[in-house]
Write a structure and sequence with these properties.
α1 crosses α5, α5 crosses α8 and α6 packs antiparallel against α7. The protein has 8 helices and no strands. It starts with a helix and ends in a 7-residue tail after the last helix. By secondary structure, it is mainly alpha-helical. The chain has 2 domains: 90 residues, RNA polymerase sigma factor, region 2, helix turn helix motif (Rna Polymerase Sigma Factor, Chain: A, Orthogonal Bundle); 78 residues, Arc Repressor Mutant, subunit A (Orthogonal Bundle).
């Protein structure tokens, strides 16, 4: 009895789940730039995810997963266009293709910004980093960030304003001078 096919299938499923978990926000952002309604975009993300699962055997490891998944999303969006025809805002195919192209080119810039932000967050003092991360954690807010950091609401707001400016300046500096610069 051979266990290799099941093991390969399990590994493939693990790779798929890791890639989807890591890139789901990017795929959703791409879809949402092309679809006028958030609920429709969420539905299309689910449909795209199903197709990605079905066609994952056709994905070539080492290539750009997000680009591959966004291509699937593109076809799901085109297929679902009749549904959006009833919406107030309907784009013709040229506008849709233009927006899709712009979204694809913005992906690289967003990836660079995320990398720069991650590096700048690491430069913060642990207490400050925890305050920022807690503030932007899903389901959290300033009150929770203040509570966890032992700060008053006023102190948390002031610290977050200071840290936002510091992070903005650091990210801008990183993007302008990618091989050096301080926070």
């Amino acid at each position: 009895m051979s266990y290799a096919p099941q093991s390969t299938e399990t590994d493939s499923r693990k790779r798929l789940m890791a890639l989807m978990t890591r890139h789901q926000r990017q795929i959703f952002a791409y879809i949402y730039t092309l679809v006028p309604d958030r609920h429709d975009a969420e539905d299309l993300l689910q449909e795209t995810s199903l197709v990605v699962c079905e066609k994952f055997d056709g994905f070539t490891p080492g290539t750009d997963f997000v680009a591959w998944a966004c291509q699937i999303a593109w076809w799901r969006i085109r297929y679902a266009r009749q549904k959006f025809a009833r919406a107030k805002v309907v784009f013709d195919d040229n506008v849709l293709e233009s927006v899709a192209h712009t979204a694809a080119t913005m992906k690289e810039e967003l990836d660079e910004r995320h990398e720069a932000l991650a590096g700048c967050l690491q430069k913060l003092a642990p207490r400050d980093r925890e305050l920022v991360l807690t503030r932007y954690e899903p389901g959290s807010g300033v009150a929770e960030a203040a509570r966890r950091s032992g700060r008053s609401m006023d102190a948390a707001y002031k610290a977050l304003n200071r840290l936002r400016k510091l992070l903005h300046d650091c990210v801008s500096n990183q993007l302008t001078h990618p091989h050096g610069g301080a926070a």
